[in-house]
Amino acid sequence: MPAVPARTVCAWLYGDIDDDDVERALWAALAFDTRYVSLTEPPGGAVPFPAYAVLAPFMHGMSAAADHTLGARSWWGAQLRAGRSEPVLDDALRRARQAGYRPVARARFLARGADGPRLAAALLIPVHREGLPGLLASVARPLSADNAESRESEEDFHD
Q1: pTM listed for this prediction
Q2: Which of 17, 49, 77, 147 is 20 to 30 Å from the Cα of 83, by its Cα?
Q3: Is residue 95 assigned to a domain?
Q4: Which residues, including other chains, have CB under 8 Å from residue 62's CB and lie 6 or more apart?
Q5: Tell me: the pLDDT tens digits for 58-86?
Q6: 51: domain range?
Q7: How many structural domains does the chain have?
Q8: Closest to 121 (Cα-Cα) out of 5, 7, 23, 2
Q9: How far is Cα 63 from Cα 68, in angstroms, rounded to an integer?
Q10: Is residue 1 one of the residues assigned to a domain?
């Protein structure tokens, strides 16, 4: 399947793109030359789905710094398929802090409204890599080297 904009995946997670359209696109991608298969773009700029915005950069191996690439953990898929997104998000947020990002919300807040199996499926859809930094920036702010002491500060978290 060809890569799609991350906002298209977020629109699907919000229910703005019909599941039947996605299913048809996936079957077509499996059966035909993927250069001719695409999902309809959502109008305007879709607001990132918070749980997806945290996990997609890890799933698709976004470079966080010159010496650090974000990567998904092997156990995340099983947890998401079982409907347990909060421990996965908690781990991803912890790892984002280690990579130099300051999350703007806690895992339990980001997990609200996240359907684990649907989120797991969304993470398997290839996305354009240039959209990944913007996704992560919607839920975590990069820390500058002179601001490293605030890395573990949790006063500004949303509950």
Answers
A1: 0.70
A2: 17
A3: yes
A4: 69, 70, 129, 132, 133, 136
A5: 998 888 765 678 888 999 999 999 999 99
A6: 6-144
A7: 1
A8: 23
A9: 6
A10: no
